[in-house]
Amino acid sequence: MQVSDSSSRILAGLLEARTGQQLTMSRRWRIETALAALLRERGIPTLDELITILVMGREPSLATQVVEALLNNETYFFRDRTPFDLLAKAALPKLARRREGSKRLRIWSAGCSTGQEAYSLAMLFAEDPVRWAGWTIDILGTDVSESAVRRARDGIYSQFEVQRGLGVTQMIRWFEESDDGWRAIEPLRRMVRFQVQNLLEPPPHPGQFDIVLCRNVLLYLNIERRSQIFERIGSAMAPDGWLMLGAGETVIGQTKRFEADAESRGLYRPVNLGEAAQIALGA
To answer: What SUPFAM superfamilies does this protein's entry cite (predicted)?
Structure first.
């Protein structure tokens, strides 16, 4: 199945219009592999015919399916383990002191894919039950992909998926085997909720998230889109909260909305904070 330049441009334009993600020349090799199953399922013999259907607008749902197929949903539990250790050792102890009065934390996993990141966060809290006894931990996972969000809500993973990032002890403790695979146990699922959310749109209401993880999402956006998303994320955060990006991402040269946390390398905090928030940051 050959992918012509014109077909590549149309598909790249569709993906960017719907999600902001760019299908650069270096990533266009994915088109053939990503769409092969969809073409078989829909009985469409060639990519050129698929493009014709899309351009004519005869099947609006097909465009959504194409976009979903082109999205990169690569993820696994405790991906790049270091960031989760940083949260556990640096951010969470400080937040625990600052939020002692309300005993409530709100965390947003933006671009959560099929949910492994959100469930990894839930495990951080569940594995320290004494410290978080009596707290309300609200973890929201969002993604632009409806199919990914459905899978995240189910919390069911294959043997291969559940073993990526989890040791045997964690796997047995937090997942139960079923006919469909391994499902996150109910106490873990109660800590996490999921919804479809496009980062190009206003952030989830009501905001005031204490921690936002937006990892390995901004890599695929141009600098203008990144700046817009940083602004949206910043507007949804508590003034003394933290933002975590992927290993290959940074706020430097991208936005003035955030700055690196001098004490916790790899975390970012909102700038232009009010006096009360500045005091809280020193807590």
So the answer is: Chemotaxis receptor methyltransferase CheR, N-terminal domain (SSF47757), S-adenosyl-L-methionine-dependent methyltransferases (SSF53335)
